[in-house]
Backbone:
């Protein structure tokens, strides 16, 4: 059975990482059996990040590469009915969320001071003293260094939020009244979109991103459809 190695549940979600939630949703979408292995330490995974999988003797990291491997290995493809042009559009939306919107979300949790206090409590609140005092600031500094290195962290907070709200507005316009991003049936991009939108909408953290997403009823309806289909226990 596939072993899905990912962060523990947090913020009331199956996973507070949009990439972990994406991959687990995709596994449910594909109907592949798996078992969760929760860890807060990604150092032992192939790429030093989460999620990762173990499938027999195969160990892999990176959610996108894992999905491609699973499609090829198990012959399941939620995108089989998409045209080449639709697959290209789907890939473009995936890149927008994973390579741009993601970094703004990182700012809301690790850069913004109010968001950091909530994140610190959620992720590190059970650590014993003095580890719980010493470790969180070090991890925060490392993540904010990544944020600056990527480029998003060089902007002012209001600029970061505006860039991300532009992303959300574009997603809302494309989703429109469709039940799923590419039409009547869910495809792989819906696993990605749900991973991100749930981490914005379903986390009770007052941010400009959440306020913007809540202002679009289509997003809440969309998440409810995905949860009814793939996360009925939520």
Residues:
């Amino acid at each position: 059975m596939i072993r899905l190695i990912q962060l523990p549940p947090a913020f009331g979600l199956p996973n507070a990482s949009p990439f972990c939630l994406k991959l687990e949703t995709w596994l449910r979408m594909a109907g592949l059996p798996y078992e969760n292995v929760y860890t807060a330490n990604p150092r032992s995974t192939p790429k030093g990040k989460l999620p990762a999988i173990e499938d027999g003797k195969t160990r892999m990291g990176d959610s996108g590469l894992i999905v491609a491997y699973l499609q090829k290995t198990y012959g399941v493809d939620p995108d089989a009915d998409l045209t080449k042009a639709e697959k290209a559009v789907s890939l473009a939306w995936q890149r927008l969320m994973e390579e741009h919107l993601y970094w703004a979300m990182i700012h809301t949790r690790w850069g913004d001071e109010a968001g950091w206090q909530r994140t610190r409590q959620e992720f590190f609140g059970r650590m014993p003293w003095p580890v719980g005092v010493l470790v969180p600031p070090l991890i925060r500094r490392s993540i904010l260094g990544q944020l600056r290195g990527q480029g998003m962290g060089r902007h002012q907070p209001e600029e970061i939020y505006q860039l991300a709200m532009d992303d959300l507005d574009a997603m809302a316009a494309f989703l429109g009244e469709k039940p799923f991003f590419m039409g009547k049936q869910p495809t792989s991009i819906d696993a990605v979109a749900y991973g991100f939108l749930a981490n914005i909408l379903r986390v009770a953290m007052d941010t400009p991103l959440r306020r913007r997403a809540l202002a679009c009823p289509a997003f809440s309806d969309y998440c409810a459809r995905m949860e009814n289909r793939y996360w009925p226990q939520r």
